[in-house]
Amino acid sequence: MAAGSKLLSALSAAALSSTVLTASAVTMGLVTLSEAEAATVNRIEVRGNQRVDADTVRNLIDIKPGRNASDADVDAAVTKLFSTGLFSDVRARQQGGVLIVDVSENQIVGDVIFQGNDKIKNEQLVATVQTATRAPYNAATAQADVEAIKAAYVRIGRSDATVSVRTAPAEGNRVNVVFDIQEGDRTRIGGINFVGNNAFGDSRLKEVIALRESGLFSFLQRNDIYAEDRLRADEEALRRFYFNRGFADFRIVSSVAELEPTQNKYFITITVDEGERYTYGTVNIDSTVPGIDAQALQSQLKTKPGDTYSAEKVEETLVDLTNAVANQGYAFAQVTPRGNRDFANNTISIDYVIDQGPRAYVERIEIRGNTKTRDYVIRREFDVSEGDAFNQVLVQRAKKRLEALRFFKTVNVSTAPGSQPDRVVLVVQVDEQSTGEFSVGGGYTTSGENSGPVAEVGITERNFLGRGQFVKVSAGFGENTRNYNLSFTEPYFLGRRLAAGFDLYRTENSSSSAYDIKRTGGTLRIAAPITENLTAQIAYNYKEETFGDNRGLTTNPFTGFPYAFVNGQALASTCGDPTIGGRLPGLSAPLYTLSPIINKAICDSPYSTSSVSYALTYNTLDNQRDPRNGVFAQVGQEVAGLGGDARFIRTTGRASYFSLLSEEYDVIGQLSGGAGNVSAIGDDLRVFDNFFKGQDIVRGFKYQGIGPRQNGVAIGGTNYANASAEMTFPLPLISRDLGFRGAAFADAGSLWGLDNTDGQLGIQGEEFALRASAGVGLIWASPFGPLRVNYAVPLAKENYDKVQEFSFGFSSRF
Prior knowledge:
Layout: H1 2-17, E1 21-22, H2 23-28, E2 39-41, E3 43-47, H3 54-60, E4 67-69, H4 71-83, E5 87-95, E6 98-105, E7 108-115, H5 122-128, H6 139-155, E8 162-170, E9 174-182, E10 188-195, H7 202-208, H8 218-221, H9 228-243, E11 251-260, E12 265-273, E13 279-287, H10 311-327, E14 333-342, E15 347-356, E16 361-368, H11 375-379, H12 392-404, E17 408-417, E18 423-432, E19 436-445, E20 452-464, E21 469-478, E22 481-490, E23 499-509, E24 516-529, E25 534-548, E26 565-566, E27 569-570, H13 596-604, E28 607-619, E29 630-644, E30 648-662, E31 667-680, E32 709-710, E33 713-714, E34 719-730, E35 740-752, E36 763-764, E37 771-782, E38 785-796, E39 806-810
Signal peptide: 1-25
Function: Part of the outer membrane protein assembly complex, which is involved in assembly and insertion of beta-barrel proteins into the outer membrane.
Protein name: Outer membrane protein assembly factor BamA
């Protein structure tokens, strides 16, 4: 007790004569207090500094010579100096009119070294940590870096990674900072289970969420990596899924991820309360704003009595009504939905109430978090700008547009008070993600000119240079084919919502049994939205085509005359060989081709086509990659004759309707149809401007397997029509995570009609003749793209058609 009293007395005496405060003491909870009142500081003396200039230290603190300094002022000065990260220790004491500041400088970092890392490269880790070369070393920052590195490993599925940090002396009074990493094994998702779901099975709900159970191809897609933020995002996806399917009372009771250490796998359990399924009751529009005719706005409603309730349809109606009243001059009108549940009949009646909202204007839009994407790329997705009337519905619409760009992991839009009561600041916070892709794909196809084994390498960038532009470069290779493509799209041409771009391509194909083909061309295009679902496009197209003998025969053995083309290269002679189409004795393959019509077109090549095309596209699909509901329809024309050799007008149309036949079992129905006509302008139509059809409209037939033929060689047709019905479904006993689906289908169609044939012989199929088939298919959403195998049996065919019951290739839904 006596010793303690003496210590307290000594401390009090020291405090009366001077004030001493150390940063290290603060961190340990030992603070020296002084009862001295504020004293005048005449001079500030800095001691212990080597690299940091004394004047810099003086400028960093708020105590100035000639002014009084209290204990609180000295305390604040020490804290501020220590917070700069330049010093490992700071002490300040006042002796008379002199404030003495003793500092111990942090060592300078020489090198930042990562050891034991393989799955995450050094460059990525450098961007993760705050400790940097030639910066002062700070132990607290280094420990924070340890946690940041661990978090980086969690994001790639290595939750058991361990990280430690140490320092090693280096030359020049520097210190190297070494992060020792043990990456551990990859943590996977062993199972995802749902509890409380009755309307939809586990397999259906697993398709809604992004997390996947570990499977055969998980190493490619890497969607079996657990992260808490991913689980939260999946919770939101489940809510949207249920809310848009009538379950307005749906809620997630809990979602738990448990790590099984022995298997190093997470097992996720999501417990839900679905509630009842609702339909729309009565739907009305009420307006309290004079001059707005509520009855005239009925056409904007997307929520119809009797339909299944959908939160998305309510949101779409809000946007359409808000735009409609704003276009009538009521910029501050607010549309609010008011729902009235009828629990007895499971209906929700909705009144869309239009009121005069407060007069608030957008003062400015602040963009935060974008390091790559330019500000204007984000701003242009807003239908409001600085000075416009503030409208929450339009702001939420812009948020959805930004999310749809797939440039950002998250998008948050909030408001802050402006400089005046009627001013609002929009704050847009984004978290960017990678927008570049390198793809390598391969497979086997029996469709189109590029039949046989195929492979493709491509580089895609959706946000080129942060300007929101789309660029893709790809090259494809097959056994007898080559193709090269370059595409570029500017989605906001001239600052307007016009998608302009170009495509360049080169294809070489020698897979035909009769002739090879080389095409080089390009397209300039521009598309403009008319409504949210309707788009118009116009394009200029140019291509040059060369056709020739693909077997390298230079001389007709019957006459000794050279052929006009060999491997696409023109020879000196003309195509006047009278024996073209003859056969070598004992051989069934034609030397050139048995069709004089084809021969004439070959002799006329190279052949150029200069055309203008235009199209209207109507698209209401719920998902562009994997549609379950909606319509896709397109009609267009191509007019050739603006220069070049071709003179024709080609009209085509196609449509697909998708409907989810069973929500529980995820059975999707599809009805599709198409038609086309090509007619010459002036001269006769060249044969290669005809339509060549086969398995692309009626499965069960070869490529170019139906339609007019001359001596057994396809010569195309001027008209076609087709229709198809298909049902796709998950395969029983096979995990959906593997991406397989089954299909059953029926096709019907025809290709017919020829331009002037000059009475040539050996022509079949000029008249309409129906072809039909039925079959089954296997669809695989592979990491390389959608692949498909079909088995189809022709039910109606002509004796000159070419049948192919099995087909393999890349799948297209519409």
